[in-house]
Amino acid sequence: MSNATTIHLIRHGEVHNPQAIYYGRLPGFHLSETGRLQAQATAKVLRANGLDVLYTSPLERAVETAEIIAQENGGIRWRLSDAIKEVHSPFDGQPIRLMADRNWDVYAGAPPPYEQPADVLRRVQEFVRQVRREHRGERVALITHGDVIMFMTLWANGLPLTAEAKQAFYFPDYLGYASISAFRYQIESAQGIPDFSYMATPFDDIPPAEEFRIPRQM
What we know:
By secondary structure, this protein is an alpha/beta fold. The chain has a single domain, classed as Phosphoglycerate mutase-like (Rossmann fold, 3-Layer(aba) Sandwich). 33% of the residues lie in helices and 15% in strands. It is built from six helices and six strands, in the order E-H-E-H-E-H-H-E-H-H-E-E. The protein has helices at 33-49, 60-72, 96-101, 117-134, 146-156, 163-169, and strands at residues 4-11, 53-56, 78-80, 139-144, 180-186, 195-199. Strands 3-2-4-1-5-6 form a six-stranded mixed sheet, sandwiched between helices. Strand 2, helix 2 and strand 3 (78-80) form a beta-alpha-beta unit. The chain is globular.
């Protein structure tokens, strides 16, 4: 057994969205052809590094990404979890241009039951704790969504859960489609901060095991 549990938070592949709307939790949004290629490339990285367990958000784009990853990794069984679903926001269905005018802030002016950044982080961390208990020493992939991953990343790097921190961390681009954000927890540390690494969509070269790890950004 490994002396660490590695949890890969993987953003789904690019989505077919010809109407250019913020789809959020809306049903009926599927991977584009590019998105499928992105998922296939990421699946090969996971195969090279070893994958034991696969969970996915129930939204179509995430499930389709999970299916591609599972197929590339020996038909590994995947499981659904609402805990890693997209952010609950009142802006689903709004034109992307309006969201860009808001600087992609889906939290300001969003009363309960809609989520704030701390709500998103709380539910994901609770799920990660469950995963660490059930899959001690294993390599686990969670197929999920941009801000779900982003808030875990900011937390792991000691940064505030703000729009400014989001922009600064991955400047000039947002978290990539089918990217891998890896959180490596030492088994001996029940509450410790994980080591963090990030890998954008690996279209060109598939690295051998563990070579995609980068130092923690502070």
